[in-house]
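User: I'm curious what two different proteins look like when written out as structure tokens. Can you demonstrate?

Assistant: Sure. I'll show them one after the other, since each token string lines up with its own sequence. Here's the first protein:
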Amino acid sequence: MRLLFERQLRFADELTAEELVILTGLSAALVLTPLVLIRHFKAIERAIEPFTL
């Protein structure tokens, strides 16, 4: 059995500038979405407090 290795790939070979921008945007959405949802539901809870006994 014989293995042939042409060249080891690097991130720069596969990750272009456009893909990096897309991945950065998706990563930001992955972090910001839960933060915004938590803030939103806390605001709803604060708004309801005066109306509860």
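Here's a second, unrelated protein for contrast:
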Amino acid sequence: MNPIVMDGVGTIWFRDEEGNLKYVDEKINSVIFAPQFQWTKVFGGQSGYPFHLTAQDLQDIVTIEVPRYSPALAEITQGSKTKVGPKKMDEMEEGILSNDGYQIKGLEKYNITGIVAESDEVNVKDANGNLKKLERVAATPTVEQYTITSTGLIKSADENKDKVILVTYKWSAESSEATAFDGLRKPKPFKFVHRFELLDDKTRQTVQCQLTIYNAIGGGTTNIGAQRKTPSVNQLQLEVLEGYVSPDNPDGIAAEIVFAYVS
């Protein structure tokens, strides 16, 4: 085939060891497959040239840059675990204690009926930013105390009127997806496919391309940060492992790249 320029990215997907589809993404910045082969030189006698070359172990890698985060990516690259279900969320609000008190805004914002019992904390903030924690009481609060109703209404003594307060509390999210990291985590092997399309400059034919890594294991950096006006980018580094014979891979190869001409 004619030499072609690799100037396009397409879609990537991963399958676990049971063949289940784990992750699909078409918004990728780059995919680079870098097979690596090296020799060790053996010298002897008077010559400055080696008389023998010993092949070193192969260290093929695939690096991928993805500008989005997904719990599935963390599973693939970091060996994390994904948990789906109810979860308690921490919240903080800043407001003013008026004559009517302060109404927690999160109840309406998150469409919840109340906060987690005894999870609330109220601090008065002075002009210099210093915080003074108030004590929760059932009724008749003093200047160093506050009350809170089941609907999130906070009140304190008249001396705290018009003062700035910081309120922290927890609320329950009934539907959530959490990524859990522990100190013993290890990524699991998977199959990786990258499908993309190129153009043969000489014939002007479209070339359908597919990179397949039959047995790989994840690594790299998973970016879960948040920075103003800067998208987070995940740098995945996949280590290519020895392939094994299977109906999907009858030759037991480790990796394959296919260029298919479509008329």
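A detail about the second structure: The helical segments are 71-78, 106-109.
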